[in-house]
From TrEMBL:
SUPFAM superfamilies per record: ALDH-like
Top-level taxonomic group: Bacteria
Protein name, entry field: 3-sulfolactaldehyde dehydrogenase
Function description: Part of the sulfo-TAL (or sulfo-SFT) pathway, a D-sulfoquinovose degradation pathway that produces sulfolactate (SL). Catalyzes the oxidation of 3-sulfolactaldehyde (SLA) to sulfolactate (SL).
Amino acid sequence: MSEQFDLFINGNWVSADETIEVLNKYTQDIYATVSKAGEKEVDQAIDSAEKAYKSTKLSAYERYKILKQVSELLQENKEEFANSIVKEAGKPLKQARTEVDRATQTFELSAEEAKRISGHGVPVEAAPGSENRMAFTIRVPVGVVGAISPFNFPLNLVAHKIGPAIAAGNAVVLKPASATPTTALRMARLFQEAGLPAGLLNVVAGSGSVIGKQMQQDKRISVYTFTGSAEVGLKLKQNTGLNKLILELGNNSPVIVDKEADIEKAAANVAQKSFAFAGQVCISVQRVYVHESIQDSFQQKLLQAIKELNVGDPNDKNTDVGPMISEDEAKRAEDWVNEAVENGAKVVVGGKREGTVYYPTVLTDVQKDMRVVCDEIFAPVLCTIPFHDIDTCIEDVNESPYGLQGGIFTKNLDTAFYVAKRVEVGGMMINDSSQYRVDLMPYGGVKNSGWGKEGPKYSIEEMTEERLIVLNLEE
Ligand SMILES: NC(=O)C1=CN([C@@H]2O[C@H](COP(=O)(O)OP(=O)(O)OC[C@H]3O[C@@H](n4cnc5c(N)ncnc54)[C@H](O)[C@@H]3O)[C@@H](O)[C@H]2O)C=CC1
Ligand SMILES: O=C(O)[C@H](O)CS(=O)(=O)O
C-alpha cells in the first residue's frame, strides 16, 4: 500500500490535480504518490512565505527552540526517516541511519547558530572628522529563500537549507528532488509539530525545470540556494539576475596516494568512500592518483577491500552498496565504462549491472579525456591513475573543471601541505579521502563546483544581509 503526500503550503496540506509516483528504487514498486505542484500552488507557496515573513517576527530564542525541537523529533522518529530514505533514494539502511543522525546535527547546529547572529563594531571614529561618530553592523534576514535540493541526501541536504534559513529569520519555499520528495514532506510535519508559524516553511514537489523557472522569475524570492548538477546550476545562474544564488554543484573527486602513504589505510578508506551510496555522493572518490612505486600494493589491497563490500538490497542492514537512483542512471554508468574500455581502459573489478544495481567498478589504463575521468560519473566507478612526480600529479588533478574537495594520503607533512596549497578545491583532506564532511564545517567548491559555503554558520551569513549603522554624536 503506497503512502499519499500533499504539498505543505502556509501550514496546510494542499492536494493538487496531478501527482508524482515515487518508486521504491530497489523493487521499482510505487512507494508513494505525492501531489505535484503547478503554477497555482507555487504562487500560493511564495505568497504564503512573503506574508509570513512580513507578519511573523520570531525572536532568535524562539527560532532556536523550534529548530532544537525539530532536531529532537527527528531523532525520536529516526527509523521512519531512515526507512523513507532507503525506499525513495535506495540508500543502504546503515547509511540512511547515518544521514538521519547528521540531519539531527544540522538542525541542532542551526538552532545554536540562531542565537549567535550578530554584526560587529566599526571604528569610524578613527577616520579624521569622524571622531564624534560610532558605527556597527547588524545582520538582517533576506526575506524569502528559494531552495532546491538534490536526490542523494533527501534529508540532510534539505536540512542544510531549511535549518539556516529559519535560524536567520527567513521564510522558505523548498522544491525537493522529484525522485525523493517524501522525506522533505515528512520533515515539514516535524516543523508543524514544533510550532513553526504557518507560511515560514513551504514544500512544493514537482518538475524542477518548471518550478525552478517560476521561482526564479518571482521577485518575492530574495536568495536562491541550489544543490545539484553543474548543468542545472549553470541554467539557474543564467536566469537569476541580480539575486544572490548559492550553488553547491558537482565534482569528480581526486585522491592522491603518495609513496609515503599508509597503503592499507588508504586502500580501505578509498574503497569505502568510492562506493558508499553507489558513488552518488558529490564528493565520492572518482579519481585516485597512486604513486607508481606503490601501485601494485595499493591495487591489491584496494581490490581486497572492495571484495568485502556487500552489494544488494538497501533494506538489509549489512548492505554497503545498493541500487542507483534509476535504471537509466545505472545504464549511463555502464555506457561510460564501456566507452572507456573501447578506448583502452581495463576493468579490474565490477563492470556489471543488474537492473538499477551497478557493481563497484575499478578502471585502470584510463586517459584524461575519458568521461569516467573528466566528467562527474556519480556512480560506483573508480579510476586508478599512476603518477611519477607530485607536480605532474597536481597538474592532472587541477585539469578537472570541478573543484569541490580532494584528499591526499601521505605521512610526509611537507608533501601534504605542498599539495594542499596547490590543488584547486574548496576543501582538502590530509590522510582522508575527498568524501569527508561534518555538518559544522564550511562546505563548498570552486570552478564548476559552484560557490558559497554551506554549514549552518556559513549558510546563515549567505542568508542574511549585513547592514551598517553609523551614529553621529556631534552636538
Ligand atoms: N555540492 C553538493 O553539495 C552536492 C552536489 N550534488 C550534485 O547533484 C547532482 C545529483 O543530484 P540531482 O538531483 O540528480 O541533480 P539535478 O541537478 O538533476 O537536480 C537537482 C534539483 O534541481 C531540480 N531541477 C532540475 N532541473 C532544474 C531546472 N532547470 N531549474 C531548477 N531546478 C531544476 C531537480 O528537480 C532537483 O530538485 C550531482 O551533480 C551531484 O554532484 C549532490 C549533492 C550535494
Ligand atoms: O555533497 C554531497 O553529496 C553530500 O554533501 C556529501 S556528504 O554530506 O555526505 O558529505
